[in-house]
Write a structure and sequence with these properties.
With 266 residues, the protein is α/β, with parallel strands linked by helices. It has a single domain, classed as 3-Layer(aba) Sandwich (Rossmann fold). The protein is built from eight helices and seven strands. It has helices spanning 22-33, 45-55, 71-85, 108-133, 156-176, 195-200, 204-213, 222-233; strands spanning 13-17, 37-42, 61-65, 90-93, 139-143, 182-188, 244-247. The chain has a seven-stranded parallel β-sheet with strand order 3-2-1-4-5-6-7, sandwiched between helices. Helix 1 packs across helix 8 and helix 4 (108-133) packs parallel to helix 5. The longest helix has 26 residues, at 108-133. It is globular. The protein starts with 12 loop residues before the first strand and ends in a 19-residue tail after the last strand. The mean pLDDT is 96. The structure holds NADP nicotinamide-adenine-dinucleotide phosphate and coenzyme A (COA).
Length: 266
């Protein structure tokens, strides 16, 4: 049985930047399944339209073309979402880019590109959406990652960008809390069947090694991240703001191989 009430988000509308695939599309489907109208935005318009069809078609979903690095593009996409569904209650900022490279194998443009999508993109989405949802009950969620807290080799760009996102959420929670607007983050662990894990763990051996380190010993699912977004967007989280919710099987606690006979240091 679904742990959430079927019509939880009836009458609510959501905008999900980067909602055209992967984890964020999973969140969009979860919100729509509970009654929300959702707009999903990404750079590729065909992919965005396909995602909207997958969510349930024009009555409940809108696919939008948008590059979060360009403020005006974000403003235009948000305006189209509001024109279509009348208002905005929930905004998720999840667009991201990642590739695996050492800092010395990364050009200045490579570093800047990821920071621009992840961090500047989140500022753009949150800054631009505020005029549409500046009222009590509104919920903003950024999709961050464990790299925000734990340094990871070959991830200088992502570590820097996601750390910035965590702090941005905290600052905005303070600045916008007096308006009744909540700002939180979700930090997923390794999630199955995603572009992110295809890049970070491209072989079965790498996948097995990562799962061995996770206290819960498995990858998470898109539905599990969707459930966290449902909680944070709902009235159940009405006194929760400025928090980063780890949905990661305990990954951020550290390397959990030791129970299997390794201390994780070798
Ligand atoms: P994904 O499927 O590649 O999703 C990325 C989304 O962002 C796509 O919809 C993509 O669509 C969009 N996007 C990329 N650049 C954009 C831009 N400049 N402007 C607008 N949209 C843009 O990746 P995912 O693995 O599901 O990751 C989703 C989120 O979860 C990311 O924030 C990631 O950091 C986070 N996360 C993932 C994992 C994991 O296990 N996968 C773990 C921790 C955190 P277009 O390409 O069409 O633009
Ligand atoms: N190693 C080193 N540098 C790399 C790289 C790699 N594997 N992949 C890209 N770059 C560099 C490029 O060389 C370029 O730098 P340069 O101009 O100095 O040569 C810079 O990054 C930008 O690349 P470009 O392909 O022009 O960027 P883009 O805006 O078209 O795409 C990316 C952005 C690179 C992040 C691309 O991987 C992407 O679109 N990702 C979205 C999906 C994704 O990453 N999902 C997982 C989310 S966790």
């Amino acid at each position: 049985m679904d742990p959430f009430r079927a019509n939880l988000f009836a009458g609510k509308t959501a905008f999900i930047a980067g909602g055209t695939s992967g984890i964020n599309l999973g969140i969009a489907k979860r919100l729509a399944g509970l009654g929300a109208k959702v707009s999903v935005a990404g750079r590729n318009p065909e992919k965005a339209e396909g995602a909207a069809r997958e969510i349930g078609g024009t009555d409940i979903a809108l696919g939008l073309s948008c590059d979060v690095r360009i403020y005006q593009s974000v403003e235009e996409a948000l305006q189209k979402a509001v024109d279509t569904f009348g208002k905005l209650d929930i905004v998720i900022s999840g667009a991201a880019g990642n590739f695996v490279a050492p800092a010395l194998g990364m050009s200045a443009n490579g570093f800047r590109t990821v920071v621009d999508i992840d961090l500047n993109g989140t500022f753009n989405v949150f800054r631009a959406c505020y005029q549409h949802l500046n009222r009590p009950g509104a919920s903003l969620i950024a999709i961050t990652a464990g790299q925000a807290v734990n340094a990871a080799m070959l991830q200088a760009h992502v570590c820097a960008a996601k750390a910035g996102i965590n702090q941005l959420c905290r600052v905005l929670a303070m600045e916008w809390g007096p308006d009744g607007v909540r700002v939180n983050g979700i930090s997923p662990g390794p999630i199955a069947d995603t572009e992110g894990m295809a890049r970070l763990a491209p072989t079965p051996e790498a996948e097995t090694a990562i799962k061995a380190r996770v206290p819960l010993r498995r990858y998470g699912t898109k539905e599990e991240i969707g459930d966290a977004a449902v909680f944070l967007s709902s009235d159940a989280a009405r006194y929760v703001t400025g928090t980063i919710l780890d949905v990661d099987g305990g990954s951020q606690l550290g390397d959990a191989r030791s129970r299997d006979g390794s201390n994780g240091l070798t």
